[in-house]
Fold this sequence. Notes:
Number of strands: 32
CATH topology of the largest domain: Methylamine Dehydrogenase, Chain H
Amino acid sequence: MAAEIHSRPQTARPVLLNKIEGHSDAVNAAVLIPKEDGVITVSEDRTIRVWLKRDSGQYWPSIYHTVSSPCSCMSYHHDSRRIFIGQDNGAVVVSEVNSNKCSHVPAAAHQNRVSDMIFSLESEWVVSTGHDKSVSWMCTQSGSMLGRHYFTAWASCLQYDHETQHAFVGDYSGQITLLKLEKQTYSTITTLKGHEGSVGALWWDPIQRLLFSGASDHSVIMWDIGGRKGRTLLLQGHHERVQALRYLQLTRQLVTCSADGGIAVWNMDTQREEAPQWLDSDSCQKCEQPFFWNIKQMWDTKTLGLRQHHCRKCGKAVCGKCSSKRSTFPVMGFEFPVRICDACFETIKEEDRTPLATFHEGKHNIAHMDMDPSRGLMVTCGSDRIVKIWDMTQVVGCSLATGFSPR
């Protein structure tokens, strides 16, 4: 059973069911096989493995492929039983779960490491991003390249809406670009800016039309795409870069994982507030003392300039003396204490500090995560070469198995 990393009491924790060990290098992706006791993994050790649970309770590889280059990412489609693997050399490999055959897609997807990919059965496309600063989409039937778009930074992660053919691409600059893909062309719809570090994970919920992003700035952002009002919610509870996330639509919960092994489960079925924009000012907006760059006011008042801070609740620019308090404020996404100006601190009631997320420790670096909501299972993997399978039903609720959402 996983241990807690927060001091506040918890009654429900992820239960570690199995460990899979056997890879000789970092495991970059692991997915659960629906309706089967099986896991598919790809690794830097250049292997693709399908692990099936034996009568002994242990997982053993029933299919084992070795390819020419380290495997960087994977997209698995259960209905077609095909596995698409992105490689360090920019190539795409196709394998079948029930076959020992492994073939390359004729067209090279990228000129450098493939960072993420999604296979669309409806259009027979593979959409992928890479460290050559591009997103590409190609036809799996003909092997022909259909289109490519370049960014100014490495393209790191991807989500794709099959019905509308919209692609969301996160990159190392912290931006998320929304593209409309066509067979021979594309159009740029908009660019989302909110993260202060590289975007490491994306998840798209087509039902509520919500986009979730995690980044190296330790934060998670919910983008309300369907609301068309530009509404964003900031979630801060991790202490390392967020590298994997999954939104559970039935229970309105968001599961996020970070590089230090942190696993967070956020309650999104509650009224939340947007974090304010930080205001600009040359002097403290509470006591009016000048900040250190305000030379004129410092000269006029014969005082030394102060360092500028911002209140996380109201967004005002304040000095250290006027923002000496710290508080959690979960309704705005702050699950650990952040700087609050003295005036706002007085308005926060004790019930306002009630947590809206639970935090757990996976005890290994989590670079990738997959979930099977119908069984309440989660699989995590990372640079420690270990794959862990978790029972999450105590954390996310038994409603996953029954289909009922708690209210």
